[in-house]
Design a protein that fits this description.
- The complex is a heterodimer of chains A (242) and B (31).
- In chain A, 69% of the residues lie in helices and 0% in strands.
- Chain A has 242 residues and is mainly alpha-helical.
- Chain B has 31 residues and is an all-alpha fold.
- The A-B interface holds A 36, 40, 44, 49, 54-56, 58-59, 62-63, 66, 102, 105, 108-109, 112-113, 116-117, 119-120, 219, 223, 226-227, 229-230, 233 and B 2, 4-5, 7-8, 10-12, 14-16, 18-19, 22-23, 26-27, 29-31.
């Protein structure tokens, strides 16, 4: 519940010191939009057709970056959670909840795009194989993380509970990535980030993938800046103590 | 034309559409 603002005007200051990426939001948005247009053109027009799969492999250019950005988002949740537990600075909690929300979005998109890719290549929309199961588990766990935050209205308690969970859940990220190596998997093995070898991908396809990943990373940064700003403004309104 | 064009279009429309919808929701929340 909102508390009455203190009468001392000296405390009417932003509770969160400005973070550079929040201030640079406008430029980030322009850069992200330009990168997204370039990545889409490269993915749909410039990149060559695959010799085996034909054009349907082009789904890779949205599926793989979505999955990687989900990994990144959940690693950021982990780092921000540690930051909160270490320093009790509220900005870390704001970053954690923002990154978790965006990470859930990217995980959902990776699952949906993967499912659409699976139908013409595997013949099914979904199959119970390790990569898909661990990704679905990751999706559900971070939804749980967001739901857990709603269980307490006490800021400190909620932030600490969420931080402990956010620090533990990151264990699923390497499990998802390596799951294709641990069991007889239908899903393709790691193509770019693979041990003991260079990427198993044509140079122009790899370049297109890297541009797509860069575009998605900029989009993530832009969404984070906007989402963190909302969190900061909301807490300012509620007079949550720092 | 590739017979799987509908799958490619669906994936791109859903991914970019969802990202734009999320951005729109952030704007609606005051970002």
């Amino acid at each position: 519940m909102a508390k009455n603002p203190p009468s001392d005007a000296s405390v009417l200051q932003p509770r969160f010191p400005g973070v550079p990426w929040v201030r640079m939001r406008g430029w980030l948005g322009i850069l992200a939009a330009a990168a997204a247009l370039l990545a889409t053109w490269m993915a749909l027009v410039w990149a060559p057709t695959d010799a085996v799969q034909g054009d349907v492999y082009r789904i890779m250019y949205v599926h793989v970056p979505s999955a990687w950005l989900a990994y990144l988002a959940f690693v950021v949740v982990f780092l921000a959670s540690i930051g909160w537990l270490w320093s009790r600075r509220p900005i870390f909690d704001a970053i954690a909840v923002s990154s978790a929300e965006i990470g859930v979005l990217f995980t959902g998109l990776a699952l949906v795009a993967g499912s659409i890719w699976a139908k013409p290549t595997w013949g099914v929309w979904w199959t119970w194989e390790p990569r898909l199961i661990t990704t679905a588990v990751m999706f559900v766990m971070y939804i749980g993380y967001l739901l857990l935050r709603g269980l307490s209205t006490d800021f400190e308690r909620r932030a600490t509970r969420a931080a402990i969970l956010g620090a533990v859940l990151v264990l699923d990220v390497p499990i998802v990535h390596l799951s294709v190596l641990w069991a007889n998997s239908l899903h393709q093995l790691p193509t770019v980030l693979r041990a003991g070898g260079s990427p198993a991908l044509d140079a122009s396809m790899l370049l297109t993938l890297l541009v797509s990943v860069a575009a998605f990373t900029l989009i993530y940064a832009y969404l984070m800046a906007a989402r963190v700003a909302i969190e900061v403004a909301r807490r300012e309104r509620l007079w949550i103590p720092t | 034309m590739d017979s799987n064009i509908v799958f490619i279009l669906a994936a791109y429309v859903i991914v970019w559409g969802a990202l734009l919808a999320y951005l729109w929701s952030l704007r609606a929340r005051g970002a």
